Amino acid sequence: MWSRCFPSYARLQELLLADCIGEITHIQVQHGYHANVQCTLGGSITLDIGLYALQLGQFIYGCAPVGIKCNAHLNGDGVDVECEFVLDYGQNRKLAAFISGLESLENSAKLLGTKGEIKLSNYWCCTSLTKLSNITELWPLPTAKYEFNYTNACGLRYEAEEVRKCIEKRLLECSLYTHAQSLELLQVVEEMRKQIGVVYDDIICLDL
């Protein structure tokens, strides 16, 4: 999960531990771009970019949702090209997201707390975080020899560096995103797939 390897996520963790905006009760996410979603390619806008909203919920609340409500618009291939979902984490904590493969959106996340809010621009590959009093912190991407095709893709080097560190330490998993978190996210995604009614004829979906 490359999102977790960005310096902005380490900073966000610091702010949360310092109780910067109090208890977070709501996360709002919008994420959209023009996507070619095809069933034969295993397409699904929820499985493609919706999982980034799910990992943010994991990061903020530290647990799996206790309730999942998901609605989607399916294309002629029978796969989702737009999706709205609300995850309930209990104790009046929620995440609401709108994910689209039909239009470009602001691609941001807002964390609403009892003392204020934090906004993450390009939240899944965040290099800009705005906190109280509209104070913005920036993390410019490293320079690279070539241009990249996708948003902040140069930031994949953060993930590569983290993998290298884990290999050097002979670790079998990365503490930034554990095996248990990976399985937890897959369980949530599988429940969402069932709710929206997407079926892949050549894929066996196993119970996790």
UniProtKB/TrEMBL annotation:
Location of the GFO/IDH/MocA-like oxidoreductase domain: 9-118
InterPro entries according to UniProt: Gfo/Idh/MocA_domain, GFO_IDH_MocA-like_dom
Molecular function, one GO term: oxidoreductase activity
Sorted UniProt keywords: Oxidoreductase
Signal peptide residue numbers: none
Protein name as annotated: Trans-1,2-dihydrobenzene-1,2-diol dehydrogenase
Pfam families cross-referenced by the UniProt entry: GFO_IDH_MocA_C3
Family: Belongs to the Gfo/Idh/MocA family.
Taxonomic placement: Eukaryota, Metazoa, Ecdysozoa, Arthropoda, Hexapoda
UniProt superkingdom: Eukaryota
